[in-house]
Each structure stands twice: as C-alpha cells, then as structure tokens.
Q: What sequence folds into this?
C-alpha cells in the first residue's frame, strides 16, 4: 500500500484544460443570466465547444459550476478595482466599479437561487466577501485621497445600499433603480462645496 505524501505539490492544470475551464465558466454565466439557474449544462458545454465529459470533469455538479461562476465574478470585481484605479479618475472609477458591482449582483441573484441550501450560499459568500470589501475600499480610498469623496463615507455601506435595492426592491426593473442609486450615493458622498 502506497501512502500519499501530503507535501507533494498539486500539479498545475494544463493550459488547454485551464482555457476550457475558463471558457465553460464564461459561457455558464451567460447561460444562467439568459435562462436562469436551470440552464442546460449540455447546452453550456456545446456553446463552450467542449463535450459534456469535459464540463463534468471540471465541474462534477451544477453547484460546483455555480460556485466557479460566482468566484469568477468576485475576481472580476477585484481586478476591475485595480484596473479602474489605474486608468480612470477617482470618481469615474467608483462609478464604473459600482456599475460592475450591479452586474455582479445580477449574477449573484441567479447563483444564490441555484446553490440550493442557505448554508452553501452563506459559505460561498463569506469566503469571497473579503475580496469584494477590499476592492470597494481600495477604490474609495483613492477618491478620498484625491479629495473627491468625504473621509467619513463608509464604502461598504454604499455597497450595502445597492445590495438592498437589488435584493429587496419590489420593482421588476431593479437594475434601473440600482443604477440611479449609484449617482445619488456618489453625490451624497462628495465633499460639501
């Protein structure tokens, strides 16, 4: 009997395997957005140009695929905070990031429904919350340093206001309400003239 050595490094995925995985996640996000949490996994595999076996090798369960899509969206938020911070003026960076956050929330609504148990939803959200909070704090800190946002503004509070409109609003057009709220919150966070 061979004993597995726990210090053996995990093998890095092959480049083509990683490309397939990333493509499946992108296609799955689009499919879930278009068709909801019940989107056909076989259709996702077909649109990604892979066989069902490849999809199931990377994501043995639908829940695994939901988690991967959610994590990819969180990573996109974190990367965007860095990119927007480098390429946009501070207020424009905040606005662009908050609009991207609204897109993330749209995906989160679908993924939350598909993850099934509240325990799983809470675990996935809690594991990724530090990345989201870090991203929003970094983009707001830059605007505070530039004098475009008041220092007493809580960036997480702004995010939570948008979450509230998204998840608890009664309007069918929640996205329009959330986008309108972005501009109201930014105006309210500006220093008094």
A:
């Amino acid at each position: 009997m061979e004993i597995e050595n726990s210090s053996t490094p995990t093998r890095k995925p092959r480049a083509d395997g990683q490309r397939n995985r990333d493509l499946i996640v992108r296609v799955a996000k689009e499919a879930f957005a278009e068709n909801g949490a019940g989107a056909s996994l076989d259709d996702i595999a077909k649109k990604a140009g892979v066989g069902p076996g490849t999809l199931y090798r990377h994501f043995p369960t639908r829940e695994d695929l939901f988690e991967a899509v959610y994590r990819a969206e969180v990573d996109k938020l974190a990367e965007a905070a860095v990119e927007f911070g480098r390429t946009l003026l501070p207020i424009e960076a905040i606005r662009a990031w908050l609009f991207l956050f609204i897109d993330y929330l749209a995906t989160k609504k679908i993924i939350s429904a598909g993850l099934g148990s509240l325990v799983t939803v809470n675990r996935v959200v809690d594991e990724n919350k530090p990345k989201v909070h870090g991203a929003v704090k970094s983009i707001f800190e830059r605007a505070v340093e530039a004098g475009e946002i008041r220092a007493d503004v809580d960036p997480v509070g702004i995010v939570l206001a948008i979450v509230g409109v998204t998840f608890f609003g009664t309007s069918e057009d929640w996205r329009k309400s959330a986008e309108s709220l972005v501009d109201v919150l930014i105006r309210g966070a500006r220093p008094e003239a």
Observations:
- The chain has eight helices and no strands.
- The chain has two domains: 14-60, 61-189.
- Helices lie at 15-35, 41-48, 52-58, 62-87, 90-114, 118-145, 155-168, 174-189.
- The domain at 61-189 is CATH 1.10.357.10 (Tetracycline Repressor; domain 2).
